[in-house]
Amino acid sequence: MKTIFFDVDTQLDFVFPAGALYVPGAENIVENLGKLTRFAAAHAHPIISTADAHTEDDPEFKIWKPHCVAGTVGQQKCAGTLLPKQQVLDSTLTVSPQIIVEKQMLDCFTNPLLRPLLTELAADRYVVYGVVSEYCVKCAAFGLLETGARVELVTDAIQTLDSAAERALIADFTAHGGHLTTTAAIYR
Fold first, then answer.
1. Fewer CB under 10 Å: which end of the chain, C or N?
2. Which of 52, 47, 51 lies closest to 127 in space, CA to CA?
3. Is 80 helix (H, G, I), strand (E, B) or coil?
């Protein structure tokens, strides 16, 4: 079974209190993010990592305060979520252990190169984690369900802004065929 780990927006601006658009409590999942990254690397599972990459005057800043401006410290991914070799998804794609999919909107599938990449990789299973549960993680999880592959949401490696919204996401996700798991269960 070909498994791909799908790391959603684990960037400094979201994960740590000093971040421009900090998700309260996100720093508490950092240890599990690192465990998942190390597990994927040790078992040769590719990692697709989404990352906001905004311009200084990005239209999204009319909705959300400025965050993850390309080239800033806050736009960087948490150290524990990066492998030594990674590449940014572009038109000259060669498959590496970690592929970073930059995006300017909530939904990673707005990057037109993502679907062709998923088709090329032809995974049977996706393991999804990151921030924010009811926004970018939701978009990624439901987009991956459309591939027909098994999609697992790692419940102790996601963080929400609204617990009720996260519960609704989980109910909807499982109702549409998604599966729930934990970091510990991945290690079995």
1. C
2. 47
3. helix
pTM: 0.94
Give the DSSP letter string of 95-121: --SEEEEEESSS-GGGSTTHHHHHHHH
140's enclosing H/E stretch is helix 138-145
CA dihedral 135, 138, 139, 145 (to 10 degrees): 180
Cα 107 to Cα 60: distance, rounded to the nearest angstrom: 12
Q: Could you give the domains of the chain?
A: 3-186 (3.40.50.850)
- For 60-65, which contacts have Cβ atoms below 8 Å and span 24 or more sequence positions? 60/104, 60/105, 64/21, 65/20, 65/21
Query: pLDDT of 34-90, one tens digit each?
Result: 999 999 999 999 999 999 999 999 999 999 999 999 999 999 999 899 887 776 776
pLDDT tens by residue, 122-174: 999 999 999 999 999 999 999 999 999 999 999 999 999 999 999 999 999 99
Burial of 64 (0-12, 13-18, 19+ CB in 10 A): middle
